[in-house]
Amino acid sequence: MANVCVFCASSRTLDDRWLALATETGAELARRGHTLVSGGGCVGMMGAVADGARAAGGRTVGVIPQSLVDLEVADLAADELLVTDGMASRKTLMVDKSDAFVTLPGGLGTLDELFEVWTTATLALHAKPMVLVDADGFYRPLLDWLASLADRHFLKPAGMDLLMVADSVPAALDLIDARLA
Predict the structure, then answer these.
(1) How far apart are CA 33 and CA 63, in angstroms?
(2) Is 157's pLDDT higher than 90?
(3) Which is higher by pLDDT, 164 or 71?
(4) Which of 18, 23, 71, 151 has its CA 20 to 30 A from that of 53?
């Protein structure tokens, strides 16, 4: 099975529906036999996705910078916790450790991770599947804006096609499983 990296929010003040989505994501990854690769945090959706994976018998790998370990937000229950010297090296290691990527709702950090992985894919530095979960239309405004970039030739249509979009976690993992088969 695959190592699937999940990008998502780490905020402690999220609505319960987003935490439930993250928990469902972790559990579904585990049911399918995948290993979760995450940002190594124990809070917000990041903590919920790891807890969901472990509750369903899955393996978890967290990648976290030392500065966040020092803030006591590390997922110490991870099967493997890799500590980096900074955020940039964290992203590089997450990409290296992963076979595919799922992006759940999130803020700036989540978008930073998504765009890093997507940009490197457009440069043919990897060919790993990437799926954006547009639960409840969360990412619809962003997707519309990105489509307008392609319409104005700031983004090649082939680049836009690299990012798959699903409206649910099972649909997202179906896309990944099909691409990895």
Answers:
(1) 20
(2) no
(3) 164
(4) 71
